[in-house]
Amino acid sequence: MPTTALWALILGGGDGKRLQPLTSRIAGDSRPKQFCPIFEGETLLDRTRRRVDLLVRPDRQVIAVTRTHELYYRRLFKELAPSCLVVQPANRGTGPGILYPLLRIMELAGNVPLAIFPSDHYVSNDRLFMDHVRDAWAVVRSRPEALVLLGIEAARAETDYGWIQPAAVPLPVDGPTVFPICGFWEKPSPLLAQQLFTHGCLWNSFVMVTWTQRLFELIRTAAPELSVPFEDVRRRLGKEDEAQVIEHVYAQIKPISFSDAVLARVPRRLAALRVKDVEWSDWGNAKRVVETLRRINHRPSWLSSLEPMVGHGRARSGRHRRGASKSRPLRAVQRLPLLVDDPLSVVPGVNGVTGPPGGVVAPGAVGGTVGRNVGSVVGEAEGYRSRAGFSPSRSVRDSPHPAAAAARNASPTTGVSSFLMASSPFPLVFSREACSRGATGAAPESLAE
Question: 213-231 pLDDT, tens per residue?
Fold first, then answer.
């Protein structure tokens, strides 16, 4: 097996627009939040680098930035080797923001274990958090086909975060406990967020550990729209015309989300490691920043002058927000050409490492188009159905598909469980028995093999 020395990729190329009302007041300019001295002279990028230093040698850390932010990262030219600062011509989302530096790391070191860190998150206990990263590293050393995501034990039904649903039974690995991933949700509705919270789902930290070659293979398999344009870049790395080629590629591609284009399309190839006893936040809005600073009793000089802007009380929960974003459950299912062959399909891997009879995607109209079935799906047999009178959505009730028929015939003893997919265009049925099998009945190329 190749060397197991861990490398780190720190993502510092985002624009941080959601927090600019606060960061512009603190710094006096439009710098992204990762370059803002929120902690009295220390930026979020500074804190991320200090955290990563606990586990990864500085000469094995690569930072990805965007050229338009050069004024704010200029000092990195002196602190990092030229090959360890990857400058993107433009911000094209986390897809290119991960792939371009990944290619650079593979050019420098070959197939090595890699931990990926956003640079704009708050973490209450750096050492404990990095202990979890170390655990994920141990897992990928024993299971090199794995990509392990750190899932934060949720403290509330947060509607602004991404969520991970872990399976009930862990993967059969020696060492730290990790779970197959059943699915992802981005910014769920208040009702769905409460269901995810109640069922023990995790916040997606976007911190992940895997091997560089494995990550490259996942990107190439799941997101050809991302990998194909970068083939020229891969061939020209280190050559005189690399800069010209990367300029051309970034001028042609549209923004691509790594979560949407890669993670959500291959959930059965991923695993989640639960992070406990660490407070974590992506600091996506000013009120959340101020609340965190108050809670940890940290009062930077800018806080008093800005408290009227963000208010003194606790932020209203997602259940009381007006205009809360609609849920977007399991974006993997929305990429139908990759995962689904027919209009009503049992999707291997959507609910964990299991194959049929797994998740049911039930289109709401004839001819395979996906209708907006806003009604609920089958409630959890032990309680929700009896208390709330839930029933299968119309498309599940009417479908002749065998898996949909099984869902219709579910009784309290069959273990059919689901979440209420309010406002969702994709009513899904999850089999609790299938998700809890974990390491058995796996679909091909799942981590349970």
Answer: 999 999 999 999 999 999 9
Do both 151 and 15 map to the same domain? Answer: yes
Q: Is residue 256 part of a domain?
A: yes
% of the chain surpassing 90 pLDDT: 58
Q: 238 lies in which domain range?
A: 7-286
- 294 within domain boundaries: no
Q: Do both 343 and 282 map to the same domain?
A: no
pLDDT tens for each residue of 91-134: 999 999 999 999 999 999 999 999 999 999 999 999 999 999 99
**Lowest-confidence segment of 45-54, 127-136, 200-209, 404-413 by average pLDDT:** 404-413
Backbone angle region of 204, left / alpha / beta, with phi > 0 → left and psi within -120 to 50 → alpha = beta
First-to-last CA distance in the chain? Answer: 19
Domain annotation covers residue 41: yes
Same domain, 263 and 406: no
251 and 356 share one domain: no
- Residue 404 identity (one-letter amino acid): A
CA dist., res. 98 & res. 103, Å (int): 9
Rounded CA-CA distance 180/437 in Å is 10
Distance CA 88, CA 115 (A): 20
What residues does 117 pair with on adjacent strands?
A: 10
Q: How many domains does the chain have?
A: 2
279 and 343 fall within a common domain:
no
Measure the CA–CA gap between 443 and 358, rounded to whole angstroms: 10
For 231-249, the pLDDT digits (tens) are 999 998 988 889 999 999 9
Distance, C-alpha 187 to centroid of its chain: 11
**SS3 of 167, please?**
coil
Reported as type and span, the H/E element at residue 363 is none
Please list the residues that pair with 211 across neighbouring strands: 113
**pTM over the 0.70 mark:** yes
The two structure tokens encoding residue 172: 């059969």
388 lies in the same domain as 279: no
Q: What is the mean pLDDT of the chain?
A: 75
The answer to whether position 293 is within a domain reads no
* Amino acid occupying residue 216: F
